[in-house]
């Protein structure tokens, strides 16, 4: 709206006349920023365009989309982590922008080995066989008739942070730690289905196999199957997204994302494990002894600062501003018990506060209120603990056992350096 | 303990079984376990038993345990269905089909269907995995290379020949997953030939015989393949006692580089660092983020999609304009006389006379003008 027209509108409101005229001069005459004469804010004084005309009708977005202004909040990828023309690849979640402990479905990180499959729900079948008394084939509708449970759990690719064993690589929190997301999942416990089918006592392992182009499979120990393994079809209150395995995936709370097979088609029970590609060629952790850990299941206790970040730094802060340092903590081994925060890269720690829901095998948000001193150089390091007793190692502690060739399961503490200008850079504190 | 759990699923009531496996299976501490709020599971983590119809902070419906066993909604798979889907191949040869293929045929198929991604002689590159880097037996020795102690040293070579514990994985994966853009298109004989070729470029032997250019592989010979790195993995997962071993492995934090406060780790709060630590900064690093990193909240550039003026009129204008100022009506003469630029401008901004800005649409100016052209003339340009 132009000034003339807004002036006309204001004219009709007599009591406004003087202030309006005043503010127009104030805006024209002085710079808002330098003025300590408390200039009126045009965003308040003027009519806003969206306040004077029809908005969208309710018929506009039958499936709602984010505000156009949020168009930079996106999953991202890099060519260096891509194979098969982005079909054996990963797109990472913008955790610098995430709020609370739920990742919106459209931003949930996406990893596949043969591209994102689009499964026709009518042709969907799940077969469960092998060492069970009564094997079964289920349609989607039949599967969903099992009584459901809903749980909030993160899923993390075990290669989260895996590019940084030998030194920091990503000046970005989205890439350094965004190979994960957290959602509320709805499905059925596998133990509920197995109570129906009858598992034979000699079964030690279960194969979970996807129906996608790569037919991704993984071997799962029976302990987890009978504990909290779920077959899920719901994600944050709607059907799974294709990127997360629509219509059905397996969810092993807290364990490697790769084990949570998507586009699930088959479960087989056996006495012996399978040796799938993704538990031999990849997803194995080579140690300096020359031996590699196979079947490395749980993502261990972990945390990071998410605010400030290289993406959204503190350059806009003034001396003495009070600011909330925020971050995420998570453990595939239980519930987060506490998070410590260091301002000097891990030399000294203070206790941070957990906030919001603190759930097992879920993202947990933590916070620390800080008074910013312009010019200070800070090295922000967070360190989480879980109720199984695990605490994040230092880089030196982890490397002394695992070496630097392991690729997966790196959970040493992470450091974000705030420089004198308030810019944030990813660094590592190590020998 | 563990075996008992699963017998119970079959024989006893599920309620009991559920109670048991939430309390039982991974436990090593014995009798006090049932009193604890939680128990240690296979990976050293914590599981939450159902107590008072709650598991951790979540409520459960206890009816599920009683009634779930009666649900059985599906049907038993037919023998042919099982055959069609149960195609995995295990190290002992379960699922491995009969057939044969030569290195020579394998090379031909490789050059036709695989080389564009996996490179000459499986050398890989451009983001595609290598299928060989040379002699499997020599390269297996590189697995102790670790660039932590000597950053300039060569790293370990983890290709099929030097690293993989089982050959069954190769057959199974090629059969199910390759060629990547058109998987499950190779016959069993073709897969035998490709496997023979991969063994050949990895300079491997079967039963003391070199897999040379003349070699013909079949099922019997395949089952004699011994991978050089067969014993390169921990914990042991084979045999009837695998799971107790796996549980024991993850019960010890030292095995996998973890720190556990119940196993002697300390939560240091003051003066925690050795003097030798330094701040290591990014040197080059990984960049090239797509789309480029940004947290700017501006309006995105929109690509203009042309609209059909008649359609827009029907949906957004007709409710008012059908009765007055209808498309092509004479009533437009007075408006158009002011000049089309004025008509556009007024209609875009809206008028006090009752015309909403852009008729209430969120069309771009250019698109909206085509609708104005239609409404004023009754014709689509």
Summarize it.
The complex is a heterodimer of chains A (431) and B (381). Chain A has 431 residues and is an alpha+beta fold.
Short descriptors:
A: 431 residues, alpha+beta, Sulfite Oxidase, Chain A, domain 2, Immunoglobulin-like, 3 domains, five-stranded mixed sheet, five-stranded antiparallel sheet, 26 strands, B: 381 residues, mainly alpha, three-stranded antiparallel sheet, two-stranded antiparallel sheet, 13 strands, 35% helix, elongated, disordered N terminus
Characterization of the model:
The complex is a heterodimer of chains A (431) and B (381). Chain A is α+β, with helices and mostly antiparallel strands and 431 residues long. Chain A has three domains: 3-51; 77-283, Sulfite Oxidase, Chain A, domain 2 (Alpha-Beta Complex); 302-427, Immunoglobulin-like, CATH 2.60.40. Chain A has helices at 3-11, 17-29, 42-45, 140-143, 173-177, 190-197, 222-225, 395-402, and strands spanning 77-78, 82-83, 88-91, 110-112, 125-130, 136-139, 149-156, 180-189, 205-210, 217-221, 230-235, 238-239, 249-251, 264-270, 285-286, 292-293, 302-307, 322-330, 336-342, 350-351, 353-355, 364-371, 378-386, 390-391, 414-418, 424-430. The termini of chain A are far apart. The model of chain A is unreliable at 1-35 (pLDDT under 50). Chain B is mainly α and 381 residues long. Chain B folds into three domains: 1-86 and 236-255, no CATH class; 100-222, Cytochrome Bc1 Complex, Chain D, domain 2 (Orthogonal Bundle); 309-377, Cytochrome c-like domain (Cytochrome Bc1 Complex, Chain D, domain 2). Helices cover 35% and strands 8% of the residues of chain B. Chain B is elongated, with a radius of gyration of 35 Å. Mean pLDDT of chain B is 88; it is low at 1-36. Strand 26 of chain A pairs antiparallel with strand 12 of chain B.
